[in-house]
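Question (not urgent): is this output format expected?
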Amino acid sequence: MTIEFEAPKPIQKQQFVLETVATEMMRSKSRYFDEHEHEIPYDYIEFMHTAMRATGAGALAPRKEKKKEGEDKPKHPPIGYQMLAHMLEVLSWGDVGMYLCTPGGGLGAAAVEAAGTPEQKEKFLSRFMGEKPTFAAMCMTEPQAGSDTSAIRTTAVLDKETNEWVINGEKIFVTAGDKAMTLREQFGKGFIVVWATIDPSAGRAGMRAFVVEAGTPGVRVEKLEHKMGIRCSDTATIVLQDVRVPFDHILGSPTVEKTTKGFKGAMATFDATRPLVAATGIGVARAALEFVKEKLAEAGIEIRYGLPRNKLTSIERDVIDMEVMLRSAWLMTIKAVWMADNKMPNALSASMSKLKAGDVVTKITQKAVEMMGPLGYSREFLLEKWFRDAKITDIYEGTGQINRLVVARNILGYRGSQLR
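Got this back:
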C-alpha cells in the first residue's frame, strides 16, 4: 500500500463547505464564546447536526464501506479517519473550542467503536443520526489517577441478583460531559463511557469500560472547569454514586484474565483518536501562522523562499521554520489516520503525531505572539486566544510526556513496567 498525498475527491468536496462554516459560523463568533465561557453555541450545533445527518460524515467513528456481493474488497479504499482529520483541522482553524461542541460521539463513541460488540455499536452509535443533536464523552481521569491509569479507583461490581453493574467513583476533566449527561430539550439522549475496575487487585487487567446513559439515577455533573483556553467547550467533573447499568453495557469481557486486555481496549481508542487531536492542534497553528503572514504582507514584508538561509532576515527564517514544523506535523498525522483506515497497528504513529502536533502548535502560536509584539498580545485580534487554545493539544488524550514514553517503548521494545 502507498499513501496518497493528495486528498481524495470526497474530502476535497467536504473542505469547501467546512471552510465556509469555519469562516462564517465559527471565526466570526470566536471572541464572543471565548468571553462567555460555557455558553452553548446552539446555532452551530444545530447546523452541524443537520449537515452530518444529510452527509453521514463526521458524527462518530468512521463508517465502514460495505462490500458488494462477489467483491473481494470495497471498491474504494477506506478514508473515514482521513476525512475526520481534514474536517477537524478546518473546524479547529475556525475555533477549536466551538469544534469541541460539535454533536456526535467524540471519544465516547470511539471507545464503543474500538471495544464494543456489533450489537453495542448498533445500540449506542445509531442515535447520533437521530433527529436531535446528541453527545457522548469519555470518563477516564480521576483526582488521584491522571496519566497513571492503573491507579483508577472507580469500581464496577456485578449485582448477581439483578444482573446489573453498580458503579461508584468520581471522574474529572470530562470533555463534553455536561452536554452528554444533562438532559436538555434540544439534545438527544447521550452517554458517557466510564472506565472502572471490576477487580482492584488485578491492576490494569481489571479495567473495563461501561456505557452510562444520560438520565441514569446516581449520576451528577458536579462542576464545570474554568479554563485558560477552549472556553466554549465544557470540561466537567462527574460523580457516580450507586449507578446501576445493565449487564450488556460493559465493553469487553466481564471476566478478569491474566492479561491487560481491558487496558488495551482503552489504548485502542486512543490510537484512533490521538491523530485526530493532533489535527485540531494543527488547525490552530495554521490559523496563527496565516495571521502572521497576512500582517507581514500588509506591512510589505515578503518571504523570499529559495534563498540560502544566511541571506534571509530573522523574520523570514522564523516564518519558514514555522511552515516546516506545521507541514511535518500534518504529514505525521496523515500517516497515522491512513494507517487507522487500513486497519494497521498505529500506536507508534498515533502517539508520534499527537506529540509532534502538541509541540508544534505551542511553539508556533508562541512565536507568532512574539513576532507580532503588541498586536499579538492585544485582545483586538485572536492571536492571543490561539496561544491560549494551543496548549491543551499537549495535555488531553495523553500528555506529551506520556506519548514520549509510548514512542520510546515502541521503538526500544520495552514494556510499560520496564520504562517509566
